[in-house]
């Protein structure tokens, strides 16, 4: 195993503490000797999990694990019908230990940090990365430092980072500022950087791709749709699919379809231009705070994933995100944070535009749990209705204004009440 620059192909040892190419500044990738990989996981009668595919992961020691991965792949008939496609699955990454897909990367990244002898790990984050880093650092018995954009991180995520003992610092700036600063900090101090620029971390995230194939009976879907922020996840999952194709486990790589928010969509814009480079956005803004990123570091990898898989990119408005979040919650019982709902909103839009065909077999990835961002929920659903502890007051509210927030059509509810 070694590290290779995706641009100039310079090679580095996997024991070096290095995040980008020293020659040209390009992103790095982990390269294995694929002739020596043990593929017996295909025959194991074992549920999916990150470490089921350990032969394709870069860790040589006993991993720091709190049982990550193995998330459900739900078949979503009601939502499929609403959107107008025949076969839709949702891979709910919100059911990882900390409630987001980041745990897949952190179990690998923090294990690697220990292997490299590092005592402090660090990241900048829109929230989920910091929560995950804090928890794995706690389990490993090392320190974690996290930089967050002030006032822009969902409450649940900050709570996790604080409770698990990370040093939590909020900066007066956005995620892109925090990321620039944490890179500088890691250069100056002996801190191990675990943002998705770290190629080892992304190896853990490629297991989302492995699990989808495993859960579909070693077959690939036609398309995978997911939200894109710093653009590590789409790159990692594409790599996972490419490796399975290289082993002839699957015939085709699914079309990688990246969804961004209208207020933060440099990758969508680059794709629209047919470009391989993004133009960074200075003031990204969206209700989906997890993907409020204007200068995604993994853009070169992500754009390759989209172009090479004949995929596409789309942007969605905050309103479309919220509508999709409600549809998922109310039609399928899947509770997600706004960024995750971007995948469903994007799918809907692309079906309406005729880019995605009704007969495609589609997997949407929902990246984080609903409880991460309770303030957004109150903002879009309203507060619970407060009444006296009195049956008539409750009945009055049920048959009138409460009906909307109970998720039942008002007319229907009035009729039900009358029938009784
Ligand atoms: N969805 C959620 C819930 C996220 O937290 C993130 C990224 C993404 C999607 C986008 O993934 O960056 O790999 O394209 N969150 C990072 C963080 C930036 O700091 O938690 P990506």
Report on this model:
- The chain has 420 residues and is an alpha/beta fold.
- Among the domains are: 73-100 and 201-376, Rossmann fold (3-Layer(aba) Sandwich), CATH 3.40.50.1100; 382-419, no CATH class.
- Helix content is 40%, strand content 15%.
- It has helices at 77-83, 102-115, 128-140, 155-163, 175-188, 199-205, 207-215, 232-246, 266-273, 299-308, 318-332, 338-352, 374-381, 391-398, 402-405, 410-419, and strands at residues 2-5, 11-13, 28-31, 73-75, 87-92, 120-124, 143-149, 167-171, 191-193, 223-227, 255-261, 312-316, 361-366.
- The strands form three sheets. It has a six-stranded mixed beta sheet with strand order 4-5-13-10-11-12, with helices on both faces.
- Bound molecules: ligand F0G.
- The site of ligand F0G has 22 residues, from helix 3, helix 8 and helix 12.
Explain briefly what this protein structure is.
With 420 residues, this protein is of the alpha/beta class. The protein has helices spanning 77-83, 102-115, 128-140, 155-163, 175-188, 199-205, 207-215, 232-246, 266-273, 299-308, 318-332, 338-352, 374-381, 391-398, 402-405, 410-419, and strands at 2-5, 11-13, 28-31, 73-75, 87-92, 120-124, 143-149, 167-171, 191-193, 223-227, 255-261, 312-316, 361-366. The chain has a 6-stranded mixed β-sheet, sandwiched between helices. A 4-stranded parallel β-sheet has the order 8-7-6-9, sandwiched between helices. It has a 3-stranded antiparallel β-sheet with strand order 2-1-3.
């Amino acid at each position: 195993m070694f590290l290779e620059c995706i641009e100039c192909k310079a090679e580095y040892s996997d024991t070096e503490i290095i995040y980008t190419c020293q020659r040209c500044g390009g992103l790095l990738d982990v390269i294995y000797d694929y002739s020596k990989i043990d593929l017996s996981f295909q025959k194991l009668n074992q549920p999916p999990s990150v470490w089921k595919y350990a032969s394709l992961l870069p860790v040589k020691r006993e991993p720091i694990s709190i049982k990550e991965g193995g998330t459900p792949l739900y078949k979503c008939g009601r939502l499929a019908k609403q959107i107008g496609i025949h076969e839709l699955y949702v891979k709910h990454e919100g059911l990882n230990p900390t409630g987001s897909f980041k745990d897949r990367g952190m179990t690998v990244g923090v294990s690697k940090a220990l292997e490299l002898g590092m005592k402090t790990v660090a990241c900048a984050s829109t929230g989920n990365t910091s929560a995950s880093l804090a928890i794995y650092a706690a389990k490993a018995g090392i320190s974690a430092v996290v930089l967050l954009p002030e006032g822009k991180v969902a409450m649940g995520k900050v709570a996790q980072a604080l409770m698990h003992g990370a040093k939590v610092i909020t900066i007066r700036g956005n995620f892109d500022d925090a990321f620039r600063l944490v890179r500088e900090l890691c250069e100056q101090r002996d801190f191990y950087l675990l943002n998705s620029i770290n190629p080892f971390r992304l190896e853990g995230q490629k297991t989302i791709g492995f699990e989808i194939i495993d859960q579909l009976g070693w077959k690939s879907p036609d398309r995978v749709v997911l939200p894109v922020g710093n653009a590590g996840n789409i790159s990692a999952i594409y790599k996972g699919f490419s490796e399975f194709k290289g082993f002839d486990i699957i015939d085709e790589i699914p079309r990688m379809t990246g969804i961004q928010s209208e207020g933060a969509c440099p990758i969508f814009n680059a794709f629209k231009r047919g470009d391989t480079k993004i133009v960074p956005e200075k003031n990204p803004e969206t209700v989906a705070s997890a993907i409020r990123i204007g200068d995604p570091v993994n853009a070169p990898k992500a754009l390759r994933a989209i172009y090479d898989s004949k995929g596409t990119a789309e942007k969605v408005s905050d309103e479309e995100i919220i509508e999709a979040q409600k549809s998922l919650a109310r039609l399928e019982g899947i509770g997600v944070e706004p960024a995750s709902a971007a995948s469903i909103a994007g799918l809907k839009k692309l079906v309406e535009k005729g880019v995605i065909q009704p007969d495609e077999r589609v997997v949407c990835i929902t990246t984080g749990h609903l409880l991460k961002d309770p303030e957004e929920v109150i903002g879009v659903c309203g507060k619970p209705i407060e009444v006296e502890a009195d049956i008539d007051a409750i009945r009055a509210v049920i048959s009138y204004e409460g009906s909307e927030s109970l998720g039942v059509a008002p007319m229907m509810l009035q009729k039900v009440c009358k029938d009784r």
